[in-house]
Amino acid sequence: MLEPNFGSAHRAALMESIDLINFLSRWLHISTAIVLVGGTVFIRFVLTPNAEQLPPAEHDRLRDLVTANWRKFVRAGIVLFLVTGFYNYLVVALPQHQHDKRYHMLMGMKILAAFGVFFLAEALVGRSAAFEGLRQKRKTWLFVLIVVAFTIVAISSLLRVRGVPA
User: Fold this and answer.
1) C-alpha neighbours within 13 Å on the C-beta side of residue 130
2) ∠ at Cα 130 (126, 133), nearest 5°?
3) How many helices (H) and strands (E) does the chain have?
4) How far is Cα 138 from Cα 125, in angstroms, rounded to an integer?
5) Structural domain count of the chain
6) Which of 83, 88, 78 is nearest to 22 (CA)?
7) pTM, two decimal places
8) Which residues of the chain register pLDDT less than 70?
9) Could you give the 3-state DSSP secondary structure of residue 61?
10) Cα–Cα distance between 61 and 47 in angstroms, integer?
11) pLDDT tens-digit readout, 61-95
């Protein structure tokens, strides 16, 4: 009689562990979005306009210092997005939405848009001479990045609110 109880207790503990991992993955994914999108909005609409008021040498120095620090956040955030995003999709959402074509279409759009955001973010904080033109028009490309990021959030919200079709 103890074995079935041990088995169900073990299964319950395993399910709680899986629920905790799923929760942590989702929380980390959303927290990363808050930090990176919020930081990008701050840089574009608060820091950059005020930094432009500085003499050119001071402005360039501040931009270089901020970019060097922000680069660490961007790169860590991209890794966290990839790990948690694919975990959330493949392990959590895919089993629930196996034959839901609209879900996969929207998720595909979200993933492609995210890769665009990753590219822009890396190009703006990177050092490659190939992307110097993007960095010269930093304000414009930060705005584009923000619009695409908010579009991703909108798609994510739609996917979450529409739930799992019956």
Assistant:
1) 5
2) 85
3) 7, 0
4) 10
5) 1
6) 88
7) 0.89
8) 1-6
9) helix
10) 13
11) 999 999 999 999 999 999 999 999 999 999 999 99
